[in-house]
Amino acid sequence: MAISALALILCLLIEICSSKHIFVINSDPESPEDELVSVVALYRHGDRSPISSFPNDPYYNSSYWPEGYGQLLTKGIQRQYDLGKWLRTRYDTFLPADYSPKDILVYSTDIDRTLMSAEANLAGLYPPTESQVWEDGFFWQPIPVHLMATDDPVFAMNVDCPKFNKLQEELEASEFFENVYKENRDMLKSLSNFTGMNVSSLGNIRMIFEVLYIYRNHNESYLPSWVENIDQEKLAYLAGLGFAQATFTEELRRLGSGPFLNYLISYFSDVINNATDVSKFLMFSGHDGTIVAALGGMGVFDNRPPEFASAVIWELRRNTKKEYYVNVLHKKNSTDAYEQLSLDNCDFDCAFNDFKTNLEAISVDSGTWGKECEINDPEDPEDELVSVVALYRHGDRSPISSFPNDLYYNSSYWPEGYGQLLSKGILRQYNLGKWLRTRYDTFLPADYSPKDILVYSTDVDRTLMSAEANLAGLYPPTESQIWEDGFFWQPIPVHQMATDDPVFAMDAECPKFIKLQEELETSEFFENVYKENRNMLNSLSNLTGMKVSSLGNMRMIFEVLYIYRNHNESYLPSWVEDIDQEKLAYLAGLGFSQATFTEELTRLATGPFLNYLLSYFNDVINNATDVSKFLMFSGHDGTIAAALGGMGVFDNLPPEFASAVIWELRRNTKKKYYVNVLHKKNSTDAYEQLSLDNCGFDCAFNDFTTNLESIIIDRETWKKECEISGSVRLVFSWSLLFMVIVLKVLKFS
């Protein structure tokens, strides 16, 4: 008997072959009699520069990373190119040498390093054949790389799932992970001392591990001297455990990887059923977390951080009996080696029906996933809602200004006057007030009392009227408060901040903010924006009869069309169909984002408001007297954009009428305070639960405060920082007001 056969028998006898992972190097990938039908390949991008690092890292400096942070490095391009060549070798008899869109479909996340990785991979997979060479000596050809919709949970990076976030927070506080932190307390302390940061979570460990991994691959001289004093195996284990949290339970697996696995199964089903327009090779360019989600979703993640250009490959095969089965491969690194993976109760050659059955509890379609992500009861019944701050945009208004060729920008069409609240706007705000009553009915007494609520507005007709309409929906008079039979309304005071108060006022001067805005407008980034959209700017100039040369112009045009679409569609100009509406909305949103485009701008634009918010919550927590438990602000689109931008969660979409941002301060059973942030984008009942960086939806108040620490600023400090030494103080002009968010009523709000 051969040694290998004897070893196999011994292995079976002592039951050490129960491992799901079998190494195969340079083997024949398929049975010669079976047919390879379809392939799905998912890989991590190639080597990148660090995205972030620890304070004591002298090499986390742009001078060492001319490509920029988080960008693909030359070694990463090479590694992906080599992976593409490996795929060509493996599938040379399956994929024709000539590129054709009928054969392969490639997706990527909308990140530079994954897009570039896909391109480099395809350069290795599809060197142009003689008929496809378009320049002598240049052996490359363009191949399309597609993006999944940003709100598609199958493969997107920015889709929020409140239930997933909540389960993650519960897991982090579980006994298992509390013990992990206790057992590794010494390492956490050592790393804190070495790195200059508070290392208190597996997320911190992952970041440190990744930085060291990059330096080890890129330039070992960048490694800190203390790295030898750290147990590298333990560091890798803890980083891997941080990844494992995303699929630690079946419910997390379903929410974290269910849509992707469902997509995979549906794709193979389409191939089996001979669906038309289905490529036989499907490729995804993703991230370490994408690899982990796929492996963890199948229950085969080995708790090791994925390496650059690592890949998971699913091969659909058909045997001589016309039965379909799936092989799963895990290529861990840039060598030719890979592992053959077996799912629970399923061999490496896993019958397709068994493969589906194995993942049945995990796979979930996007629609169902969206519903399961919701938290029906937004608060824990055992937790206490302590305070609420609500900021909303006014309701529908008439246009403030318009373009010369607009036939309907005429006072005869707007008897209310320009920039005034319309009937639809009154109704929209009234309905928002009713929604607030429904949500907070057990928190806000039905009887109005000034002890319960304090309402502020800017000194503009439409915001004052919006506040009144909102309060009419929030506080319909109870029997004891009815003062006229059949008239179900009562007056409630709406206050105004001082006009020179930067928290929420209109006429506060900040020369430094204006100067920074002017510098931003002429920056390379925005110059490129204007260059890339020159054709649209020219078209709009011709169609509107005005020179469209700034994002401010774009915002005004977008707003006018938005008003007409809501008020009377017959007012829309005929040329509106010729304009890319999504691009117009994007550019208008980008105009809003300018106010908080840098940390310094954010501090000047929103720092006083966020400081006021935190001070208010602190007063509530400390039981300060004369503090209402509900604080309301009636503002503008720019106020909404600034609040979201200040927290780093603005999605670059122009805020709709009556959209709202709501902060809820809650206290759990351990008397610990946390903050929930909601974003109600429109007049439906739907809202989003927002999570700040490094802070879940249930964000501990201290973490919430820390997160905003570099942004918040008191009134007096703001005034000093607004000054420009030796310069003449500038006063806001109406042409610049569209950029000033919480400081001034926006021209296009």
Shape: globular
* Residue share in helix: 25-40%
Rg (CA only): 29 Å
Secondary-structure-derived class: alpha/beta
What labels describe this entry?
single chain, 749 residues, alpha/beta, Rossmann fold, nine-stranded mixed beta sheet, 23 helices, 17 strands, disordered C terminus
Task: Explain what this protein looks like in three dimensions.
This protein is an alpha/beta fold. The protein folds into 3 domains: 19-158 and 248-371, Phosphoglycerate mutase-like (Rossmann fold), CATH 3.40.50; 162-246, no CATH class; 384-515 and 595-739, Phosphoglycerate mutase-like (Rossmann fold), CATH 3.40.50. It contains 23 helices and 17 strands. Strands 1, 2, 3, 4, 5, 6, 7, 8 and 9 form a 9-stranded mixed sheet that branches. Strand 3, helix 3 and strand 4 (146-147) form a beta-alpha-beta unit. The chain starts with a helix and ends in a 27-residue tail after the last helix.
Summarize the structure.
The protein is an alpha/beta fold and about 750 residues long. It is built from 23 helices and 17 strands.
Layout: helices, strands, pairs:
Blueprint: H1 3-13, E1 21-24, E2 35-44, H2 74-90, E3 104-108, H3 112-125, E4 146-147, H4 162-172, H5 175-183, H6 185-195, H7 202-218, H8 232-244, H9 250-272, E5 281-286, H10 288-298, E6 311-318, E7 324-331, E8 338-341, E9 350-351, H11 352-358, H12 366-372, E10 384-393, H13 423-439, E11 453-457, H14 461-474, E12 495-496, H15 511-521, H16 524-532, H17 534-544, H18 551-567, H19 581-593, H20 599-621, E13 630-635, H21 637-646, E14 660-667, E15 673-680, E16 688-690, E17 699-700, H22 701-707, H23 715-722
Parallel strand pairs: 2-5, 3-4, 3-5, 10-13, 11-12, 11-13
Antiparallel strand pairs: 1-8, 2-6, 6-7, 7-8, 7-9, 10-14, 14-15, 15-16, 15-17
Helix pairs in contact: 2-3, 4-9, 7-8, 9-10, 13-14, 15-20, 18-19, 20-21, 20-23
